[in-house]
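User: Show me a protein chain along with its predicted structure.
Assistant: Here is one chain, sequence first, then structure tokens.
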Amino acid sequence: MAVIIDQHKRVMVQGITGREGRARTKLMKEFGTNIVGGCTPGKGGQEVEGIVVHDKVAEVIEDSGGVDISVVFVPARLVKHAAIEAIEAGVKLIVLVPDRVPVWDAMAIAAKAKEAGANFVGPNTLGIISPGKAVLGMIGGRAESARQWFTPPEPNLTNLGVISRSGGMTSSCGYYLAQTGFGLSTLCHVGGDSVIGLPIPDVALMMQDDDETDGIVIFGEIGGSQEEQLAKHMQDGRITKPVIAYIGGKAAKEGTRFSHAGAIIEGGRGTHDGKVKALRDAGATVVDAFGDLPEAAIAMFSIERSST
């Protein structure tokens, strides 16, 4: 299995004729993602990487026979329209890569998705990668580098899933864990904005049900309540797999923003200490430094460090 994306999911790209759309379509396809179509209004009839371009999402679905996931590469001001078009056409998962999407637009997307029984990742996400299977978005860069950095899950390895609120640290977590000798089931950047689709606890529940994920690694941040909600799932017994976490923003004071729009302490909520305590009380291993994550995983699973 894999969480969210694998080589069988049928993927389309909205904004496929733009600079980012073209570049990322090429990289996703080279990694093994099953891209079945793309669309850009007014560009129907063109081709990108051998993929037929249509004007509308519904036309891609009709021509391809169905779409499971749409990855959106359009300017921030157009994200709301693109996402809602995909949701109304019946696509059940939308990956919103652009940053600076207006918060009211993200809220409108969330309302439409809930109404239609759909989900979305982001906005402001680098995407999701299931090593050895497929990638959505921009994680891992070129296909050859992604294959070198991220070890696919194997029966003879301890395989970890990574969930992060930082795009760059998603890749860093995966890289250092793989270099230490772990396999990786899925790496997911949930997005850095204050309103997002699938948060850390929801993705963790998916990993709990994934037979290729032995443990879950979290890169969290101050602000919001995602980490506390994860801790609640652990206390309630909904998540029983081992959890190892690092929480960024220890030195941030109330009212300051740390790295992302969603990482801000307000009204005494979303503090570093509060998140660490909640997770530790729930049974998670929380490290004080990011670089301690691999050693904590080694200790937790009692494995020998890789010689690579």
